[in-house]
Amino acid sequence: MSLYDPSLLKRFYFPGKLPPVLSLVQSVETAARDTGLILSQSKVSQQTPTETWLQVKAYGTINVWFAFLKEIRHIDSHVLMRTLTLDYDGKNGYQVYFEIGHRVEVSP
Predict the structure, then answer these.
(1) Where would I find the beta strands (DSSP E) of 61-107?
(2) Are strands 38-47 and 51-60 parallel, antiparallel or unpaired?
(3) What are all long-range contacts of 72-75, with beta carbons under 8 Å and residues at least 24 apart?
(4) Angle (CA) 102 92 35, round 5°
(5) Count of C-beta atoms within a 10 Å radius of residue 64
(6) Do 105 and 6 contact (CB within 8 A), yes or no?
(7) Contact 86, 94 (CB under 8 A)
(8) pLDDT at 5 over 80
């Protein structure tokens, strides 16, 4: 089996140009505000001609986190997650660390 699977590329890596990084930031901020996820830090962790990734630190309950995931996919159907860490903090829910971004298709 090949590591290059064209059907996966078509599903997750959209063709064309990357949207501006500010549109990704706005989508994350909107989804967080609408669901109650508290953002404490975000920064661009990688930006190349084919991909952009935003590293985010946030706080919220597990229900808020799942609502955020649903909302961000509703706002931006091309958004991808690359890393995720949930640290339970008994009084405030979870500290959530994740990378979210876009990747465009590159022909082999």
Answers:
(1) 80-89, 93-103
(2) antiparallel
(3) 72/27, 72/28, 72/31, 72/100, 75/27, 75/30, 75/31
(4) 45
(5) 19
(6) no
(7) yes
(8) no
Q: Can you read off the two tokens belonging to residue 14?
A: 């959209």
**Residue 62, C-beta contacts closer than 8 angstroms, at least 6 positions apart:** 86, 93, 94
- What tokens appear for 103 in the block? 């990747």
Helix (H) / strand (E) element for 69: namely helix 62-75
The residue with tokens 């946030």 is 58
Q: What is the pLDDT of residues 63-93, one digit of tens each?
A: 999 999 999 999 998 899 989 999 998 877 9
CA 34 – CA 23 distance, rounded (Å):
16
Residue 32 has pLDDT above 90, yes or no: yes
Report the predicted TM-score, pTM, of the whole model to 2 decimal places.
0.84
d(CA 91, CA 78): 34
Q: Kind and range of the H or E element at 56? A: strand 51-60
Residue 78 carries which DSSP code?
T
Percent of the chain whose pLDDT exceeds 70? 85
